[in-house]
Design the sequence.
């Protein structure tokens, strides 16, 4: 790691969306990925861990991986298999993984050690449900002093994409989200408000096809995933969290209190984002409200061009 | 009533916003206002009833008035006195009311009789909390067969204006709203999505000042109410419900299921509007999603011009 | 009414349990039953109203009856048809009712008039779900000044008999119960704590068989209702409310705050009875904790002996 | 360990009640205590860990201790300092602890290793809030196959002793309790139903005073703790869990489904124990409903007599 790099841990549940975000992160010179942890979300823990290892093999990157939580803290798991296909990354013939990268210890213990051993405060980048991060905070509250911030993909200031009022990553484990947002660690919430504008269109996907091997791979995942519905734009939710790390100036943000609705019968998992101060609570998050769509598109294609 | 008129009952809690909506309704040739009922909301029941009677005296209209619920069904009342001033209609010197217009019976009984006696199905137009309408439906479910629809001002498909996720009229009495939305009566939800675009600017207000006596009165209420903050536009929420009755073509709508969050600790009173079908429920409302702002402005000024 | 009589309104959902309680009340010289109102509960509103009128015909008593709420305020109705049989009073061939006793107005309006017209404050005796009483309080809060107290059958300080933690009458309409308990009117809660000890055994039932016509009728209802399970004792829940009116000295009571759980996913409808003061709330009810079983049995048989 | 011993892990928050239970367990020949873990509850984590180590020094027992969770999973901690005094074990001058017994690792990791390394399935005996056990189950679900059962002190089938409807250990961390009860591991719930009958009276305490050093120590804790209120009996809640391990025949039990109320505004933390089958759920616990008070008293005094 050189001094200008940001040391991060990515907590992920690939999934295509995560695969693209990982590509952008793995080839960024500004980021030093110390550890990748996996969490059940888009598909099962077994599958997301296997997918993570397959991606690292594809990218020829040697980063330690640790498997984490197989289910949410309290809530029953959401079954998202109809959305994400059999493996979560259908449509491309990945190489078999190097199992040596998989640590023998639990993601939470691996994060704990990585954080405590780092000279520089670590940035956590969860782009799946927040189960691992919540367990980390409850098991080892002492890590909080060496976490710089948590830049997470999740939440929404308006409607959701999983429940009516809930975004998937928060909806999948609301109690974990509540622990994280109330932890006192600085939070950046990169949610649907920007994800809905971080779009890849068919013409972008065509460019990827011949860009390089990574572009080729992603093109095929996109085709399989949503060949038909791509016209209205594929939303690159998870990549927005990486984009925030690298180009925060693309984003319009506001500090606000974000409470997680844990009791609602219809709105459980809603990120109640108090932009107007109705709740009289101190702010606990920097909330991304808008993104410069054109800048994002440029950054996105540039990032994938570096992947080779 | 002539055959082309729509017979309606307005349930209201004036409030300036209600005063403007009443002006637009009272002078419309297309509407036949059979009854005006009052409900605690912006200010107390006593005050909203007094304000309603003062408005009718000002407008020289003889429409029966019946006072209704003094508090919400279950929830503690919201204290909105800081928003609406001492009387709810400060800033203009209204004539004293004609108390003869005030019926001796409860709003719910007056609605019941008016609905059952009408040859033509009645449209209910609640522009305050839904307490009276809920009591009507529970006490006299037989009225449902002679209600054409309920065109209500309330709710939001995104954030709120009272709680973080709740609009004032629904937030003020969520259980009543739940009874109304689940009643089986056709509902039109005219909420914040359109109210936020139904704006009156200082230049519009100046026009009102010399338009006619009504314009003069409204100008003074606006000045007193929000003289300072008018620059970003005063939102004519309640008038939107009247606009929908008269010019539904100004509105973009979608049929959807609207559930009222009754259990949330942070999102109680949220109108969970399932535009994407997450809940697999049959639609119970026509939800106004957008309004043509220019058409609204034209309609609004035209409507007030007729008030003389 | 003579000066020593207590003027009461009984709100009921017969049901056998209610039938027995009505018998005890109707022949008591100490009670002046001004009105009987009906509410959906054990069986549908139509059936409980029909049953009430059939009972009055059987007893040859001319007391006005008014039908009330056909469903709970907010909650879906509990289907208790498996418990109470087809009519709610199967097993005896009742005379057809005198429909003239049935008022044309809603129970809530009838209660309103009865209460306001009474020289002496009225005692309400609800022995079904509290829907009517809640509607009365919300529609006509002014009646509260002429209500002496509400002696209700409902609730429990421990477990329930409908949900795990909820007694049937409260479970059937928790929001109505919440309105009633928070109304400020003095409440006497006669619940399962005493109902479980107010038992009729087979030998008691045999005595009834030949006691008089009323005993004969009740015997047959018991036989049909629970011929098999009578050995462990039939619980005379509703009669306990009448017993409290007439012989409060049979009961051990404590003043306490009773909150109604409205939000619980497993304990909705629980009467959270704060006997130890955990909630630091002022008491809102006199809670019956125990009953002298022997005195009750004596009172019960005496009461039915007077029915002829 | 000999073959007849039951290998157990005690998870505890001393507290006097825990101190007495630990005494009974530590000198039992039938139990093999592999590990003692600590959890915030009666007093802070720091204090309960210090108290545990002081007790082991007092008893001259060398059992590894691991400190666990410093706060509940989701809920704010209950402040019970007014009940348990400054240290949680005031009134006796304990020796300073042997800090070597304190493991460097988290209670959850220590439990994990102890369970996986055991030849014989382990019995967990939590006598504090269930935070550690819940974290263990979520972090290492694989331990479940080598846990024989969880015999826990907590819950109630009726009223509570912390909230109106909630027992302290469950009330302190309801979400953790929910994880444990829904884990699929066999649960024995030793709660208030028996704790309220496991009483020590002044005459018993006097016997302890001169019984042996342990009795002397406990006598002084009792005197300091509740010298005044001892007349109605001190409740030996936690000792009941040890008693169940050693003499289950003292207890009357029933298998039932126990749900933990997580949403109630008044009954959060209630152990909704479905003895009658209202919820149609498969049973997840053996619930202690009654205890033979005389047998318990005998066992209790015998157990303390062995402590020397
Ligand atoms: Ca993801
Ligand atoms: Ca209004
Ligand atoms: Ca009844
Ligand atoms: Ca304990």
Sequence:
């Amino acid at each position: 790691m050189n001094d200008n790099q940001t040391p991060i841990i990515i907590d992920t549940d690939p999934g295509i969306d995560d695969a693209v975000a990982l590509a952008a992160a793995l080839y960024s010179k500004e980021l030093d990925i110390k550890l990748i942890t996996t969490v059940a979300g888009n598909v099962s823990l077994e599958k997301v861990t296997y997918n993570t290892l397959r991606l690292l093999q594809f990218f020829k990157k040697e980063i330690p991986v640790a498997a984490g939580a197989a289910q949410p803290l309290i809530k029953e798991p959401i079954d998202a298999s109809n959305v994400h296909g059999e493996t979560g990354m259908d449509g491309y013939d990945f190489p078999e993984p190097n199992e040596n990268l998989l640590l023998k210890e639990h993601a939470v213990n691996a994060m704990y050690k990585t954080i405590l051993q780092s000279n520089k405060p670590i940035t956590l980048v969860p782009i799946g449900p927040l189960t691992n991060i919540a367990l980390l905070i409850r098991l080892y509250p002492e890590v909080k002093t060496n976490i710089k911030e948590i830049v997470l993909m999740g939440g929404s200031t308006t409607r959701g994409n999983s429940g009516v009022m809930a975004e998937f990553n928060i909806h999948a484990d609301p109690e974990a989200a509540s622990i994280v947002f109330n932890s006192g660690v600085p939070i950046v919430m990169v949610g649907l408000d920007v994800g809905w504008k971080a779009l890849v269109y068919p013409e972008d996907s065509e460019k990827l096809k011949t860009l390089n091997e990574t572009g080729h791979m992603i093109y095929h995942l996109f085709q399989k995933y949503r060949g038909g519905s791509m016209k209205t734009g594929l939303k690159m939710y998870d990549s927005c969290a990486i984009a925030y790390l690298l180009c925060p100036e693309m984003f319009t943000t506001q500090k606000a209190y974000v409470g997680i609705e844990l009791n609602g019968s219809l709105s459980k998992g809603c990120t109640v984002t108090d932009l107007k101060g109705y709740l009289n609570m101190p702010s606990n998050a920097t909330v991304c409200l808008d993104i410069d769509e054109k800048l994002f598109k440029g950054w996105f294609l540039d990032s994938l061009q570096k992947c080779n």
Q: What stands out?
A: Residues A 12-13, 15, 17-18, 41-42, 127-128, 238 surround calcium ion (ligand 1) (CB under 6 Å). The CA atoms of residues 54 and 97 of chain B lie 5 Å apart. The first strand of chain B starts at residue 6 and ends at 12.
